[in-house]
Amino acid sequence: QNAFPSDSVFDAVFAWNWVQQSTAKSLVRNGDFESADKSAAPAAQDDWSAKGAPAGWATWSRMNQGQFQRAAGRGGKGAGWQIATTVYGGKASLLQNVPVQEGEKYLGVAWLQLNTLQKSRIGFTLRFRTANGWYTGKDNLITVRPAQTTEWQRLMIPIVVPPTVTKITVTLEVEGASATFDDVALYQIRQQ
């Protein structure tokens, strides 16, 4: 399932405006990739790894194709994180589990820049987890994909956490190309 929630454009704009006007802090650890700390996220799955991961994150790679490295951040300032695979089908991801509360609204945000415009699948995904593993209900993950441009672009995902969900896995994914990510965030949107 890869559905985008109804009214998502309105929800994204409303939530982004709320974030800009509030003092909301991102729940994502090291979403700006500035931390020099070497402690990767604990592996939530057997196939997650700390190899090549920035602080707070884990990596996953299909066919052992993932390449992960620090890169220049958005606007040439600070750091971003580059993910690349050399073949289509060789998927690589940075992942981080973030605790959430069921029934609450959140906004996921990620900036990314495509480093190549070849055939590829690149995305920003929020996937739900329960205490027992992956959530299997309706809309169990939501992915947004970038426009085909090498300019920096912001991707946003507004969500309401379903019952039994305790975490959201924030995923930055690349298949058959190279992309740089920066300023990844997950904000809890408080009702006014």
List the helices and strands and how they pair.
Layout: H1 8-21, E1 58-61, E2 67-72, E3 79-84, E4 91-99, E5 105-114, E6 121-130, E7 133-134, E8 141-144, E9 153-160, E10 165-175, E11 178-189
Antiparallel strand pairs: 1-4, 2-3, 3-11, 4-10, 5-9, 5-11, 6-7, 6-8, 6-10
Summarize the model shown.
The protein has 1 helix and 11 strands; from the N terminus they run αβββββββββββ. The chain is mostly beta strands. The longest helix has 14 residues.
Task: Note down, in words, how this protein is organized.
With 192 residues, this protein is mainly β. The protein is built from 1 helix and 11 strands; from the N terminus they run αβββββββββββ. The chain has one helix spanning 8-21, and strands spanning 58-61, 67-72, 79-84, 91-99, 105-114, 121-130, 133-134, 141-144, 153-160, 165-175, 178-189. The strands form 2 sheets. Strands 1, 4, 6, 7, 8 and 10 form a 6-stranded antiparallel beta sheet that branches. The protein is globular and about 45 Å long. The mean pLDDT is 86.
Point out poorly predicted stretches.
none
Along the chain, the helix and strand elements come as HEEEEEEEEEEE
Radius of gyration: 16 Å
Largest sheet: 6 strands, antiparallel
Shape: globular
Average per-residue pLDDT, rounded, comes to 86
Query: Structural class of the secondary elements?
Result: mainly beta
How many β strands by DSSP? 11
Helix content: under 10%
Query: What is the count of DSSP helices, taking H or I runs of 4+ residues?
Result: 1
Strand content: 35-45%
Spatial gap, N to C terminus: 31 Å
